[in-house]
Write a structure and sequence with these properties.
AMP-dep_synth/lig_dom; four-stranded parallel beta sheet; AMP-binding_CS; globular; medium-chain fatty acid-CoA ligase activity; alpha/beta; nine-stranded mixed beta sheet; Rossmann fold; about 25% helix
């Protein structure tokens, strides 16, 4: 698969490819270690990878791709039931793991191969088609058992090349992040992305602001993170001038996997002079849109469609919106070479996910500005609130609430109301639990910034909001 990672066969200067803590590999070393993995899995169709944030995980996935097989990344924090479902559904031939990893009983029936990052071998001859599966990535399973999205090789190359165009990403870039490697963000963008460009990855293992400052000061040019990470950065900046200086020197700060609150955008920009840019993607689509490196980093937006990606907003009846006014809400539908091909073993779910013409129903609601910028306002299933004849996106209310100094975290949902149809409910983690802002104060705060019909009618206070591994708020887990 030299077309995926050209630098693996062109490494005259011993360039650094991967670094995890104090362990690293050059491109030549990575090519040899990955070839050794490929040799050991020869003939396998699907291969599970115990996806810890380690050098072994990166080598394993690259080796699987070089061998023309499909990798099934496993979240080491998954419960027995979820792991059992994923393994019975994907039926991998074997499991790759780092030596010494303790594996749960759910994977005990699989043949295990330990990945040796210092092994050497000649490349395995493989000539997969662009449409062949590269990854089987399981969705979060919020509405049932996780579904395996079959991601073809062309989706990876098209997404990474489109991001290279949008972000002016080159082999000179050094990326730093501390993202998990069982999701698209950390694995495809965060590991395969630098390798496709011929650049370098420095993985923090576990995210912390000291590590970010250290790596950006020591030559890293790009930082990838999720909103929880950028929130911690924003909180730390006032007392950490070294962090502010390091971020100010970065070429690109990118946030994804969930919306970054506007108040965190503004705090980071004020302290560093640099604006975080956002992009929008899904497991099934990889990346769809992004703010461009040479464009306006407009807080609260996910930019414009990437090269090769078609995007439209549609009404509830499937009619496309014809005018983009920055106010009209519609569901995002996309099509292009970045899309998955199917949900594994689920032809019914696959058929339901697409409309005529090959448009994928994302389930995400958005508005689009006249110049093409897209603003996500929430998920159709949990974040679209129909109140008093209006369609309201939870996301913009959450941003408004987070601008209140008494609010640390916020989530917004709808609940049945005999008069309005649905009423807006705000779930608040107060900055000071002993003196939380009143419901009346928060309602007035939102009404003054957005519109009266978007104000919360009910406010509920919590110690913390439920979140998943990527920092996304799990609204279905809120108390009933």
């Amino acid at each position: 698969m030299t077309s995926l990672f050209p630098a693996l066969t062109d490494d005259p200067d011993g360039r650094a490819a991967l670094r995890f803590g104090d362990r690293s590999l050059t491109y030549a070393q990575l090519a040899s270690a990955a070839a050794a993995v490929g040799e050991r899995i020869r003939g396998a169709g699907r291969v599970a990878v115990w996806a810890t944030p380690s050098l072994e995980t990166a080598v394993a996935v690259v080796g699987v791709l070089l061998a023309g097989a499909a990798a099934v990344p496993l979240n080491p924090r998954s419960g027995e039931k979820e792991l059992g479902h994923i393994l019975s559904d994907s039926e991998p031939a074997l499991l790759l793991a780092a030596p010494g990893d303790e594996l749960p009983p759910a994977v005990g029936g699989l043949a295990r191969i330990d990945v040796d990052v210092r092994a050497t071998a000649e490349p395995v001859a493989a000539d997969p088609d662009d449409g062949d599966p590269a990854l089987i990535v399981y969705t979060s399973g919020t509405t049932g058992p996780p579904k395996g999205a079959v991601i073809p090789r062309r989706a990876i190359t098209s997404t990474l090349d489109a991001l290279a165009d949008a972000w002016q990403w080159t082999g000179a870039d050094v990326l730093v992040h501390g993202l998990p490697l069982f999701h698209v963000h950390g694995l495809v963008l965060g590991v395969l992305g630098p390798l496709r460009r011929g650049g370098s990855l420095r993985h923090l293992g576990r995210f912390d602001t000291d590590g970010v400052a250290r790596e950006l000061t020591d030559g890293a040019t790009m930082l990838f993170g999720v909103p929880t990470m950028y929130h911690r950065i924003a909180e730390a900046l006032p007392g950490d001038p070294a962090l502010a200086e390091a971020l100010a020197g970065a070429r690109l700060l990118v946030s994804g996997s969930a919306a970054l609150p506007v108040h965190d955008h503004e705090r980071i920009a004020a302290a560093t002079g640099r604006r975080v840019i956002e992009r929008y993607g899904m497991t099934e689509t990889l990346m769809n849109t992004s703010v461009r490196a040479d464009g306006e980093a407009r807080a609260g937006t996910v930019g414009v469609p990437l090269p090769g990606v078609e995007l439209r907003l549609v009404e509830e009846d499937g009619t496309p919106l014809t005018a983009y006014d920055g106010e009209s809400v519609g569901e995002i539908q996309v099509r292009g070479p970045n899309l998955f091909t199917a949900y594994l073993n689920r032809p019914d779910a696959t058929a339901a996910a697409f409309t005529a013409g090959g448009w994928f129903r994302t389930g995400d609601m958005a508005v689009r500005d006249p110049d093409g910028y897209v603003r996500i306002v929430g998920r159709k299933a949990t974040d679209l609130i129909k109140s008093g004849g209006y369609k309201i996106g939870a996301g913009e209310i959450e941003n408004a609430l987070l601008e209140h100094p008494g609010v640390r975290e916020a989530a917004v949902t709808g609940e049945p109301d005999a008069d309005l149809g649905e009423r807006v409910v705000a779930w608040i983690v107060p900055a000071d639990a002993q003196a939380p802002p009143s419901a009346e104060e928060l309602a007035g705060h939102v009404a003054a910034r957005l519109a009266p019909h978007k104000r919360p009618r009910v406010v509920r206070y919590l110690d913390a909001l439920p979140r998943n591994d990527m920092g996304k708020i799990m609204k279905r887990a809120l108390p009933s």
